Amino acid sequence: MSLSSGEDHPRAAVATNEDRDPLVAYGSVKRCIDFLVALFLLVILSPLMAVVALALCARNRGHVFERVPLVGRDCTTFNKYSFKMGAGRLRDLPVLFNILKGDVSFVGPRAVSPGELCPECALMLREAPRFPYAGTRLKDFRMDMRQAPDAGRPRELSAREVAARRRNRVRPGLICDWWILERANMAYGHEVLVDSHYVEGYGFRKDVGIVLRALPSIVSHVVFGPDFSVEAAPSDVLSILDIRINNISMRDAVERTIALLDQGEPRQICFVNPQCANIAYVNPEYKAVLHKSHLVLPDGIGMKIAGRILRRHVRQNVNGTDLFPRLCAELKDTGKSLYLLGARPGAAEDVREWILRNYPGTRVAGCRDGYFRPDQEEEVVRAIAESGADVLLVAMGVPSQDLWIGRNLDRLGVKVAMGVGGLFDFYSGRIPRAPLWVREIGMEWFYRVYQEPGRMWKRYFVGNAVFLFHVYKERITGRNAPKHQE
Q1: Both 121 and 177 in a single domain?
Q2: Is pLDDT above 90 for 129?
Q3: 421: Cα separation from own chain's centroid
Q4: Each residue of 4-22: pLDDT tens digit?
């Protein structure tokens, strides 16, 4: 929230009586629910919490709790309680006292540190290092504005700042849309914008939906402990089954792809999922292509599970299906163009129509299906080179698409070529994508089996078991080379 009055910033989305009424009405009901549930849990868990507190008291010489200053509703600061211990299932149990007090809710945007989202709050904290955290409203704190660099010069807020102020109109919570996306490795956008949408749809139905979608991650947290991959600092490059993985975010992958379009040397980008890893394990030619590729990106929940087993944090699920529309958006009105190669006859043309309909400023230099004979390969390569395309998408399945690109990359005339598997089937409309909630709980693979059981059952049920066998073998032995190379 702003340090000055709402009148100073007309676009600050300051809540009026009219637009706060729905928040207040449901907020009162939600507060009662939070209080009763937190009280019930505290009564049930009090013996366990007492044992933990006594153990910590003995170990830490009387220091049992940690207090971290955070920002709550309307930028009111509070101290979040937790046990003074390392990461574990029991560490955050004292937050139930915060819920009982009304500092936080079970469902709501993440409670942030003072100044994390709002530059003005950060400025104020620099000017007032002894700022008394608990119970103080940042928006009501009176700082001598003459000391501020922009004193007397109101500025226009960015979209993210407006969203940041909007998200603070409700109590922060323990779980939210972003919490779910992060644990599903699908947190591709901006957290404040996702939270802003939560406030816009604020209500009982929305909260119940979040709780149901979060249940798989909550159960995983209770059974297996905290997801270290959310807490740990990830490496930018990691290895899974002797495959080098570029462990970057979706945003970084798109930005790096766009940056390659202004370089001279053609580059190959590959996506790796458990099926790809299984094939690379027994196919040295395909593994060599992966090793030579400029970027190798982790695709699917299976790679996250493998990373967790191997204690290697996989940052995000950077799959081609989600990357494609973001790539189209970045290419819009740039003069750069795509070439679509692969899938069944007519599929590439349907994808081109989807691009022109959704991103009218994005150029498609050409397209054709993937059903051509070996003696037609030279003709296909020549057509792509003559099209002047900058990016080539090849949908021929694994490993054919990546081997084909690796064999012809220097002759295609493109700056970037990537194999995209079944992407054309989704965007041509032949096969519908799994609903978002199915992807959030990591069950998109099961949805694919449901859609095409005859073709997919062996790939997923047998293939996933083989993949996990190899991953656990690597975990136990510490070796990731396949048997025929050992």
Answers
A1: yes
A2: no
A3: 21
A4: 333 333 333 444 444 445 6
C-alpha distance from residue 486 to each of 239, 242, 284, 306 (Å): 17, 12, 13, 21
Q: Per the domain annotation, does 280 fall within a domain?
A: yes
Q: Is 146 a residue whose pLDDT tops 50?
A: no
Concatenating the DSSP letter of every residue in 141-181 gives ----GGGSTTTT---PPPHHHHHHHHHTTS--EEE-HHHHH
Q: What tens digit of pLDDT does each residue of 26-56 get?
A: 888 999 999 999 999 999 999 999 999 999 9
> Rounded to whole angstroms, what are the CA distances from 445 to 17, 178, 436, 453?
47, 22, 13, 11
Task: For residue 283, give every residue at least 6 positions away whose Cβ sits within 8 Å of its Cβ, in sequence order, or none.
Answer: 399
Task: Give the residue numbers spanning the domain of 208.
Answer: 6-226
CB 95 within 8 A of CB 81: yes
Residue 482 lies in a domain: no
Residue 353: pLDDT above 80? yes
Contact 463, 274 (CB under 8 A): yes
| 252 shares a domain with 384 | yes
pTM for the full predicted model: 0.77
CA proximity to 339, closest of 413, 255, 258: 413
One domain for residues 398 and 457:
yes
